């Protein structure tokens, strides 16, 4: 399974559909709100949301929606990233509710080589998130510094830092396992 891409693997106009989706539970939303100290009653108080808002029920906190979509995009976009440089824009265009399932996809808007180091480049992408009905709920654009192939080769290839399993009394090694 691919985890991120090198600069050369990105093509302007390409779209990556992220899989699988994520169903947002009430527990997920409440825990995220409490961990981040966002105690707005729209997200935590069902009576308030029912009686005092246009939605009539709790709305999932937007930063959690964004975080899910960003996380979904990592295997396709930034799994090999050197740095996330900028979130250029972030728009929540429709609410997400408990029980909704989020899906995402990312389109490559542009890419350019680094002017200071020849082993990397910058990729400009737009991610959209939508629910089980296809309603777009969140759109964001970001810039990611990604390595070129020569950067990865110089640091151990596709899985830098991954150790090799060492034979011992519990596992004699690959040659012994096939005998």
TrEMBL record:
InterPro entries: HotDog_dom_sf, MC_hydratase, MCH/BMMD. GO terms for molecular function: lyase activity. Gene3D superfamilies: Hotdog Thioesterase. Residues 154-179 are annotated as: Disordered. PANTHER family: BETA-METHYLMALYL-COA DEHYDRATASE, MONOAMINE OXIDASE-RELATED. This is MaoC family dehydratase. The lineage of its organism: Bacteria, Bacillati, Actinomycetota, Actinomycetes, Micrococcales.
